[in-house]
Amino acid sequence: MNKPLTIVTPTYNRAEYLPRLYRSLVAQTCHDFQWLVVDDGSTDSTPALCERLCAEGLIDMRYIRKENHGKHTALNAGIAATNSALVFIVDSDDYLLPDAVRRTLDTWSLFGNDRLSGICFLRGISENVPLGQPFPRNEEIASYIDMRFNRGVSGDKAEVYRTDILKRFPFPEFEGERFLAEDAVWAQIGLLYEMVHINQIVYISNYLPGGLTRGDHSINVRSPNGSVESVRWFLSKQVRLKVRVPMAWRYIAYGLFAKRRLSGLIKASGAPMLVLTQIPFGLALYLFWTRKFADQLHSHRFVSVNDEAASHVFSGGKTHRPRATGDRL
């Protein structure tokens, strides 16, 4: 019998941190879930560790191993292998509070319907200190686009999504690119569905050295096709103009890094007049980033899959959403 919730954990060389997440799952007040670990080609002791944890039988656990192609590809593999109604993505260096599963299932039982894509809880740096801002109102129904970008609620959150929707919107994969911001999917879903927002911390984040930080656009310019897809959805008229304009600059700049023609970018944007009018600014941003990130763009160290920082970014680290306004270029 399928469990109603699957906790999907993409991981790469995080054997040191997985046991803490495992212990937090064993400690859940409700065990009506499956933990699916998707190993993105780890070279440490992750395989042996996961085999041992599976053998303990304390929770329903599955382990999948694949070649290293990036966190987003690991998520695609995990979601494809999931048959539960809901998916909760939990990074390998984070953990859940004891009532996270129970709150998830109770909340969905109360609010779940066809027009909702899922639930958005708070993350915390501790049990009582939220990461970023809480939501304006508890139990508010709103889209990801509206809550996070139009209204500017800051900080990473703990999203639980319907599995059927995630299977309809897989993360785009591009040959040679190992980074894709989760916004490439979250924003696309947010244009069609709303979520229920719960002002309750259920997820504790641990930001490790070498992970992503806001405004680190060098990551994006090294995976430009994925970056184009990530920002394209923010050109929609559902997004306030104050956000759409700088996103158009990024869209153009990333497209140029991807060696796409401007005519093709304009046609694919869904907002041709906006993109057309912002070409001078997008070109200026492209030239600025070309100079700023020259070393990263031409250094083999920054594209090596086995580089410690890069591997954390690509497969096990945080994928912060881009800030709507105010971040440095």
TrEMBL record:
Sorted UniProt keywords: Membrane, Transferase, Transmembrane, Transmembrane helix
Gene3D superfamilies listed in its UniProt record: Spore Coat Polysaccharide Biosynthesis Protein SpsA, Chain A
One family name in Pfam for this protein: Glycos_transf_2
A GO term for molecular function: hexosyltransferase activity
CDD domains in the record: Glyco_tranf_GTA_type (cd00761)
Keyword set includes Membrane: yes
SUPFAM superfamilies listed in its UniProt record: Nucleotide-diphospho-sugar transferases
Protease keyword on record: no
Domain Glycosyltransferase 2-like: 6-109
Signal peptide range: none
InterPro entries: Glyco_trans_2-like, Nucleotide-diphossugar_trans
Transmembrane segments: 270-289
Domain of life: Bacteria
Name recorded for this polypeptide: Glycosyl transferase family protein
Organism per entry: Caballeronia telluris
Lineage: Bacteria, Pseudomonadati, Pseudomonadota, Betaproteobacteria, Burkholderiales
